[in-house]
């Protein structure tokens, strides 16, 4: 029996404490939808109604808080902290990083709502008695609000926390890891498990909602181009099964380069479609509209951010069915998008991350909504309100709108291709993120797990559509997003605490009394300075200075009951030595020296005033530490001076460890 259990564990990367509760939540919804569709639909609708009416204010206040929180971090000194070690360069060049953020702003949502939302707001304005132009301006203002900086602030908060704790503290990229400043050792206990279970469930239902939107719009597209005569429930089921099968095959094949290529092609097609609409539509009017839309959005962003219609109850239904639902949808997608932007942002500063994440995708979203939304409103005005009359058929509005532009058949087929690729690539990436959450931050998974999660997403989307269409999808997303909203709010305080401690820890200078420089050995130092720093000299320093210094200090410190170890490798390609004092339940004290291989300029190699440089490659013994601080050259030190330097670093270590708040950074995460 024991062998069978061990064999079972070897076949999966699941963390059972996370996966089983998540699956139980999903199973409860699936069973309810399959066996009691009417009753389940009624309960989901009641839950959505209770959350929107009782907790809508928390969604508004929480999301607005995220915007303020990120902007304050951006302009503060904390914005200079790097997402990685102090000397770490960004993993991707700036323009490549910007391009990937740009791609992250795309998705099925923009294709589905690019025409549908502006037309819906225009057809059913919040306030009566407005002129057609005033209705259009208000419609675009509300659309900008829902697709602007607030959505990306939600993604940015979680993405920044994942990137900071993952790359700075070297902990797994899971939501619970960001709560160590608050939970400490309890982060792996029931509360930490609950956080990851909510993140897992929230992500599954958020992706399921998006797949529901995509399948309904694809069905309308197929009908528009004549592939089907009517979009029945059977059609939606076939679409979900076929395209989720493609996503599963993509996920288990491991052809990440192919998926990336498809994503880039899809992004190009989407940009082409947007530019085509801009070119064949009323171009000058649209550009003027974008400028005014942007100005209206910026001038109204504060009242919009805190608008709950507390004094306008007749519009409360609009508020709960649009703004609150949108915020819940963005929150449910936060682990998905947050994980993506975190993984591509290693080496960036906090300030770069915030400005990039908040501005780049937001500007593109607003441009997209203007091109499609204002052009659709213009077409509606020119054609006697035909689009407004279809406001309730949101999934069909994009294709009906394209019929008013040239080459409608071609652009409709192109739209179907774009939506299809978004459908497959989003599901593929979603499977990977869900696998990661269920595996406590793992990055490699058995193929059957990817297939399993794909089947779960497909089954859930089909059953929820069967039960109550988009209403059921929105209701389940709403139920899961409320607890995750609370988690995100608390996470902000954990992130702030970590950043404040980080700044104090890395900004702490050495004590003046630890300075060891004197006038002694100046001739020896001069001799070292004019000697060529080649590999042999570096090995000699490690073997004849560093190792003896570490061993002598190790023997002496044992007299005081402190156990120290010395590790070294003199014959390796880059010789190194380490002095280690192991610490229980916290990061070990390590003073290491390793030879760094550096290239030098032709000017330095050929300069007679630099006799020590006679080659294009030099080897410098550099110190390094367990916490990732930047080391410094030590090749001019004598044995006694090196011992003193180790002691001054150990003195700093003990003083920082004595202060409780620094235990956060001295904590050694478990593998």
Automatic annotation (TrEMBL):
It is found in: Cell membrane. It is a multi-pass membrane protein. It comes from the Bacteria. InterPro entries: BCCT_CS, BCCT_transptr. Keywords: Cell membrane, Membrane, Transmembrane, Transmembrane helix, Transport. The chain crosses the membrane at residues 20-43, 55-73, 94-115, 149-171, 191-213, 233-255, 267-287, 324-342, 354-379, 413-438, 450-473, 479-500. The keyword Acyltransferase does not apply. Pfam families: BCCT. The keyword Plastid does not apply. NCBIfam families: bcct (TIGR00842). Belongs to the BCCT transporter (TC 2.A.15) family. This is BCCT family transporter. It comes from Megasphaera hominis.
